[in-house]
Each structure stands twice: as C-alpha cells, then as structure tokens.
EFCB1 protein
Amino acid sequence: AAMSRKGLKLLVDSLTRSAKHFNKSEVECLINLFDTLVARSSSQFAGAGFDRTVFRDTLHSAFGMTDDVVLDRVFSTFDRSNDGCITVVEWVEGLAVLLRGTLEEKMKYCFAVYDLNGDGYISREEMFQMLKNSLLIQPADEEPDEGVKDLVDLVLKKMASTYLLVPFLLQDYDHDGKLSFADFEKAVREEKLLLEAFGPCLPDIK
C-alpha cells in the first residue's frame, strides 16, 4: 500500500532502532524490496505482506536455500504473528538476524528452526527429519535411513558430551534423545560448526 513520506520516515526510523544491525539506507532498500515482493504476492493480505511461496522463492534465489523443510521452518521463525503473512517489520527484523545476527541471536534462530513442533526441545525424531532432508543420499544405499540415524547418534553424543561436568545444564537426564536450548547453546559455544548441525538455515558468507 502507498505510504506517505512522513509515514515512511517513521517506519524507517522505527525499524532502524528495532532491527539494529541495519542503517537507515539499508532499511529503506529492504522496504523497497518488500514492496516489490508484496506486489508479486497474492492479494489475500491486502498489501500488508507476502505469503510463504514468495518468501521461499526469495530465499532460494537470493541465498540458494533449497531444502523445503528448512525453508518452511525459516518462514515460521519470520512469521512471528503466525498468520501466514510476512509483514514489513517481520521482514526487516528477521533479515537482521539472518544476515547480521550475533552468535546469541543466531543460536536462538537456529534452535527455533530445528524445533519442529515448538516444544522447546530438539528431539531425536526432529533431528532425523532435518538431516534426512538435508543430506545427499546415494541411490545405491540400501538403508539410507541407517546412515542418518548414525549421524543423529553422533551429533547427540557430541552435544551431550560437553555436559558431563555440568549435569545441571543437561536436560537429557534419561537419555531420551532431546536437546534443550541450554544443551544446544553450550555445544555451539564450544564448537561453532554445530550451529547448523541439523541443516543449513543460514546464508553462507558469500
């Protein structure tokens, strides 16, 4: 929808404060891109935002993200109001974390992407689903799922092993294969490569 010059200035100022990783000119560019994407979207949101399809296409073309499960989860982390529509505020603030977030912000974002059912834990089943969709499986493999299960066990062992000296942080007391955010955070702080342990959900440096 058309916006007055004063309204646009207020929006830019507000988003520059809330997104914090972008300057004013960058926020203006992202708002312009948002308007372009809204024009490309279906009209069901009356110009307030764009839908999942446009979002996925944009992340695919801009960042080469192709995993359907990951893209759906990234959409869910952006769509904080859970209404199926990405608003301008959700767009700019979501990109601020995706592109320039601190390690803390990216840990929370990645954990939310991997926590498929939103219960505050990454279960063994969720790990399996994420890894199964992100790994390349050779056609000749007779039991491709076994390889994924082995990888899940390996990641769980790696993440759990960091808590042997601090059991109060370890949520997986009964070894049921669940990781809490505290588990995930501790492991990532010790080995940053584990940030995207269950699938690529951040753009690469390029």
Notes: The domain at 5-101 is CATH 1.10.238.10 (Recoverin; domain 1). The CA atoms of residues 4 and 156 lie 53 Å apart. Strands lie at 121-122, 179-180. Residues 162-174 have pLDDT under 50 and may be disordered.
